[in-house]
Amino acid sequence: MLGAILSLCAAFFWASAVILFKKSGEDFSPVSLNLYKSFVALILVSLTMLILDIPFFPDKPVNDWLLLAVSGFLGITLADLFFFMALNRLSAGLVAIVECLYLPSVIFFSFILLGENLSAGAIIGGILILSAVFLGSAIRKDTQNNTLENKNMISGIIIGCLSMVFVAAGIVIIKELLEHTDIFWATLVRVCAAIVSLLILVLFHPKRKQYFRELKFSKAWFIAFPASVSGNFLALLCWMGGMKYTTVSKAAILNQMSTIFIFILAAIFLKEKITINKSIAILLALAGVCLTIFS
Predict the structure, then answer these.
(1) CB burial of residue 59 (10 Å; 0-12, 13-18, 19+)
(2) Residue 17 CB: number of other CB atoms within 10 A?
């Protein structure tokens, strides 16, 4: 029960963060936004560990440290970087549909790496979810002047799909480790690994001056900060907690409710239109999730 509750909380906190990150993308580039929210997460996790008296350097095998670092690189550095790039190209509603690829990706990696069985219902559910992505991202032929917009949409969908694959791989590889590891310490190591890799990227990037300039205090922080707290502290901890206290597949299914939350919040706060394609895509995605749950 605890794992299920945490997984649903992760879905809601992440959906709320996506809406705020969408607005933050107007002031931050994907690289600087990723670095900013990772620093916020590092500070909050560190303070929490100090308050709860959780050791920063527990007696753990080197392999545990390395595995968590790889997980952070895949699931934060690469996955979040690609996610913010996709969010700049797509509407929040369409991102919600692309995020449906997370579930079949987790099921696939848990089958390959953990030996969790794939039922016929789960396979059909995955197909329905993939169908939802394609349907929801169908390009409209309204005018002849939206070629660039269509190219951005296609690239955004591809980048978004890659993000979901990296997120899934990053969490599945540490599932067994999480069963005997403190969530806060594991999160700290992942975030530290992400920050180190992002700093290396920024320092050697030709646009490094721009990235550091974007990180200076500004009005943009009033949106980016709550987004980071919700998405990279609350959601991240609940997400990892859900993975720890239930099976990978069940946690991923409940995490997928973020799709519905994003769809609703985008319509309310971003005034995104609820198209027929998106509505059908959401129904297909929900059907896929239900099939996976009850198979």
Answers:
(1) exposed
(2) 25
Residue 200 carries which DSSP code? Answer: H
Please state, in angstroms and as integers, the Cα–Cα distance from residue 55 to each residue in 75, 205, 281, following that order: 23, 35, 45
Burial class (CB in 10 A: 0-12, 13-18, 19+), 39: middle
**Which of left, alpha, beta for 115 (phi over 0: left; psi -120 to 50: alpha)?**
left
The token pair at 68 is: 């968590």
Distances (CA, A) of 254 to 134, 179, 231, 261, 293: 22, 19, 16, 12, 9
Q: What is the pLDDT of residues 146-197, one digit of tens each?
A: 665 677 888 999 999 999 999 999 999 998 999 899 999 999 999 999 999 9
Close Cβ partners of 250 (under 8 Å, ≥ 6 residues apart): 3, 4, 7, 293
Give CA angle at 10 (120, 66), nearest 5°: 85
Residue 145 DSSP symbol: S
